[in-house]
């Protein structure tokens, strides 16, 4: 998306909500006394791991695919994704009966790759660099005429992801803070739009792995800059903030909290125990941020989006006690 | 409950639904292509592990507590439970602001005992026999005037548990079969009432651990008889079918399928992977029964109640691959 392109607005989130309503799962709100006690705050969770294809990503992918004109749709869609967006786009394409190509870097999370394949995508492997992903993607576009649906730097995707926060605000009015993980910034920018339009008094806090903290630096310095070699177990959050995502978030005044991997893993375990939900480390960072900054959230009503749950149950990142 | 006492009816389930509506979580329906493919059938799951206190048990407990006259309520409630019913009753009592006594046998599941304590119950330990549980319970009743809320052989509890199936039928009309686990038979008898009143063409199948298969024998022979020493990992399903539960289920024509523990564990792992839900082995038996009897469910629309998710995440019953 060119840097002078118009940014998506709150109305686009409302349009997305209407467009994806026939397909999306309205995820419930969950809470637990034990988690409130641990945080010293009143927490409600929006478990998007229960969404189709196991992550909020289906919202944005579905919005993009459902909005395609018929002739474009017939040529299919393409994306590069190491995980949840690929599976989500494949599912959205399958529901519309069109082809979906997913460029997957070597070394991608096995549970996520399995899901992409299971959704019927045509998988193209490439080297694990952004340049290789983009080049392979451009090649598929040239070969097939498929429409690129970028995992996060796409106004249709941002608007679609905003529907998660829209639902959260509808089910839990009057939140003081909404906390979401940030990687490329699709969910985060969508949340900023939803909050601005629906609940401008609610603060937005972004949780980011300390080993891939480009959003923290970008929103402080006002300049996007990739982290050269992101190091974190949170495979869904290694991407650099997208350009439109950055512009939306910078204007929103959102704040970023960095989270250590060990804290993300502890939060993941706590959510499995207390909400009976398997979430990926990339999701658990949001609760981890709240627990690591208790003073900041004390006594407040906090909404947390648990972004996804595509984890290999045989490789949970903690051992038996 | 004496054997000539009137049995709860469908109207009692409707009354329960209205009574508990302000307190209960309307759990969502979940499904996954991978699970449909594994079963060769169309499966929808009602994840009651997302219910307050982590199991459907809150429905029956809440119905019993909310329906108590004020003077009785003030003296509190008492039950004997090794697990989910104890936590559920404690929560229901706490919401009404009355005391709750729970008689817990030695050797109870740690995750469940922790939950009972966390909900603020007064815990009384006893030897792990039915006689010891009942004697201790009677003593607490005599000492405090608390009302006994039996875990399953109680019409208020049966009616309350029936609301889980009522919600399932409302959200997924036209099911061919509903499958629920059976232990003492609260959920199962409630399901029979809900089906009879709302969807009499839907068959009821009960899943029971092979190591505690008293319901299988009782519904075949027409006579209740406890299994002398139940041996199964499904700690929530070791109880003998209650008397009113038996009468309702016998009249309903429900069928029982026995499930091996290894199959329950495999189904538990599959649900964690495909629905991102942690369920206890006692819940997973329902899916295990469907997978072990594919021919019986082939092509049919099957509703499955996943009863609870109170499991210690450090002691999942499978090792790393």
Automatic annotation (TrEMBL), chains A, B:
GO terms for molecular function: ATP binding; L-serine ammonia-lyase activity; magnesium ion binding; pyridoxal phosphate binding; serine racemase activity; threonine racemase activity. This is Pyridoxal-phosphate dependent enzyme. Keywords: Lyase, Pyridoxal phosphate. SUPFAM superfamilies: Tryptophan synthase beta subunit-like PLP-dependent enzymes. It comes from the Bacteria. It holds the Pfam family PALP. Belongs to the serine/threonine dehydratase family. It comes from Luteimonas wenzhouensis. Residues 21-308 form the Tryptophan synthase beta chain-like PALP domain. GO terms for biological process: D-serine biosynthetic process.
């Amino acid at each position: 998306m060119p840097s002078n392109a118009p940014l998506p607005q709150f109305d686009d989130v409302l349009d997305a909500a209407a467009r994806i309503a026939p397909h999306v799962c309205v995820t419930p709100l969950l809470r637990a006394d034990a988690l409130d006690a641990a945080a010293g705050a009143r927490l409600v969770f929006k478990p998007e791991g229960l969404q189709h294809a196991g992550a909020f990503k289906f919202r944005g992918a579905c919005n993009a695919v459902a909005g395609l004109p018929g002739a474009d749709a017939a040529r299919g869609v393409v994306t590069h994704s190491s995980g949840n967006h690929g599976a989500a786009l494949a599912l959205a394409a399958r529901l519309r009966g069109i082809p979906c190509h997913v460029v997957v870097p070597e070394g991608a999370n096995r549970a996520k790759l399995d899901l992409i394949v299971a959704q019927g995508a045509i998988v193209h492997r490439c080297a694990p660099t952004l340049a290789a992903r983009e080049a392979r993607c451009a090649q598929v576009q040239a070969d097939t005429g498929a429409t690129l649906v970028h995992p996060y730097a796409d106004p249709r995707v941002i608007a679609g992801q905003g529907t998660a926060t829209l639902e959260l605000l509808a089910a839990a009015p009057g939140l003081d803070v909404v906390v979401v993980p940030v990687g490329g910034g699709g969910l985060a920018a969508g949340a900023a739009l939803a909050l601005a339009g629906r609940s401008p008094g609610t603060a937005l806090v972004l949780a980011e792995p300390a080993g891939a903290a480009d959003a923290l630096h970008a929103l402080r310095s006002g300049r996007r800059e990739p982290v050269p070699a992101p190091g974190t177990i949170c495979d869904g959050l290694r991407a650099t903030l997208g350009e439109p995502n950055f512009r939306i978030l910078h204007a929103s005044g959102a704040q970023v909290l960095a989270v250590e991997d060990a804290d993300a893993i502890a939060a993941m375990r706590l959510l499995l125990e207390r909400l009976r939900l398997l979430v990926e480390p990339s999701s658990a960072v949001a609760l981890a941020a709240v627990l690591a900054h208790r003073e900041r959230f004390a006594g407040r009503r906090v909404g947390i989006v648990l972004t996804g749950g595509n984890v290999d149950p045989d490789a949970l990142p903690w051992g038996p006690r």
